[in-house]
Write a structure and sequence with these properties.
Layout (H helix, E strand, L loop, with lengths): L3 H27 L10 H26 L3 H8 L6 H31 L16 H31 L4 H15 L3 H21 L3 H23 L4 H13 L1 H59 L12 H14 L5 H7 L8 H26 L1
Helix pairs in contact: 1-2, 1-5, 1-13, 2-5, 4-7, 4-8, 4-10, 5-6, 5-8, 6-7, 7-8, 9-10, 10-11
Length: about 375
């Protein structure tokens, strides 16, 4: 029998391994070990981190530790199909998140600058930015992170820790998502994005909307860089805000506040639509299937009573136990609930043990330590 503690422990072990490997590569890279390794070393490192570390450990090692099939692990993480309408809504949310992210990142960068922080990230100067390189950057910066980072955080962590409280799991997985970047400049907005996409994954009971939002945010950022280098005009949208602020600070500030409020309101509307298109729609389908099954069973019972010349019992309701059995059975058949989720619901909550505390401490000390180190490095 799978237990909440076993799933919880497996998720922490896997993420501890991820953090250790990620921190080692991050520190090696920060000290310039890969500086003379060629122009494409960053691409190779990204592929290694995303696929071999984040994705493979989250899928294969977690499945091994929980003695779960790979297919069931994907379902447990929330790889449940969504409609085309839900996909389009998720794309719209991703666009809004990108623009909100600009303001959040700018605000925290200004805040860091007040403490004397200067960015120490290395920037590679390129003489040309062809379309094929843009596609490669989309793949390693948007496609891979959208799938692999979401699998590790909104899949393994969020679902794996949910047995000890969904709100707690959302906060912890979002904080660790921010720390996972191991960069003080990215920590703040990554944590906020983590909270949003984690909330989306919860209300939709599917990881796909979170993947799409993450992908769109990163993809638009890559396109903005490509557009800026090749003078395609997209960067002028952002430049227009800067011009207004520099010309008239008060007017620019009011325009930005109105813009943020407008985006926030639109985001709220789209989140409601997404919830209706995913969870509500699935529950309606599940309810309809259960009711049809109950009607069918009642009809067969009435037919059997007539056949055997017995009195027909009118039964317009079923017991809670019968309904619960039908609910779980149909939930699994429709792919809305994985075996791990079903077994977790059947187990009582368990408290943290010593191993959990050690793993948590190790994860936070390493990831937060490297993140704080990047801040100190930028100040001194």
């Amino acid at each position: 029998m799978f237990t909440k503690n076993k799933v919880f422990t497996s998720a922490l072990i896997c993420y501890f391994i991820i953090v250790v490997l990620f921190a080692v590569l991050r520190m090696i890279s920060a000290f310039g070990v890969f500086e003379n390794a060629g122009d494409y070393v960053d691409i190779l490192l990204n592929i290694v981190i995303q696929i071999l570390i984040l994705f493979c450990i989250s899928i294969f090692i977690f499945s091994f530790l929980t003695k779960n099939r790979i297919k069931d692990t994907f379902k447990f993480y929330g790889y449940k199909k969504i409609s085309l309408k839900a996909i389009l809504i998720s794309v719209g949310i991703g666009i809004i998140v990108y623009f909100l992210n600009i303001f959040v990142a700018t605000f925290f960068n200004v805040l860091l600058a007040l403490f004397g922080y200067n960015s120490v990230s290395s920037s590679t100067t390129i003489s040309s930015y062809p379309f094929w390189l843009f596609l490669i950057n989309i793949f390693i910066t948007a496609v891979l992170p959208g799938i692999c980072e979401e699998t590790a955080h909104r899949g393994m962590l969020l679902k794996g820790l949910s047995g000890h409280g969904q709100t707690r799991a959302l906060i912890i997985s979002s904080l660790l998502f921010g720390f996972m970047h191991m960069n003080i400049e990215q920590f703040f907005y990554a944590t906020l994005i983590g909270l949003l996409v984690g909330y989306i994954a919860i209300i939709c009971d599917s990881i796909y909307p979170a993947i799409i939002v993450h992908f769109m945010n990163n993809a638009i950022s890559v396109f903005a860089g490509y557009s800026s280098f090749n003078n395609l005009g997209f960067e002028k949208i952002i430049g227009a805000f800067n011009t207004v602020i520099q010309t008239n600070f008060i007017l620019g500030f009011l325009i930005i506040i109105m813009f943020i409020i407008g985006l926030a309101m639109l985001l709220k509307i789209l989140l409601k639509l997404l919830f209706k298109e995913t969870t509500v729609k699935n529950m309606e389908s599940l309810q309809e299937k259960i009711m049809n099954q109950i009607k069918k069973e009642n009809y067969l019972k009435e037919l059997d009573a007539v056949k055997n010349d017995r009195e027909i019992e009118s039964k317009n309701f079923i017991s809670f136990e019968e309904f619960d059995k039908l609910y779980k059975q149909n939930n699994q058949e429709m792919g809305l609930m994985s075996k791990l989720e079903k077994d977790m619901l059947a187990e009582p909550n368990q408290k943290y043990n010593l191993l959990h505390k050690i793993l948590f401490a190790g994860i936070f000390i390493i990831s937060a330590g490297v993140t704080i180190f990047t801040f100190i490095w930028g100040v001194i």
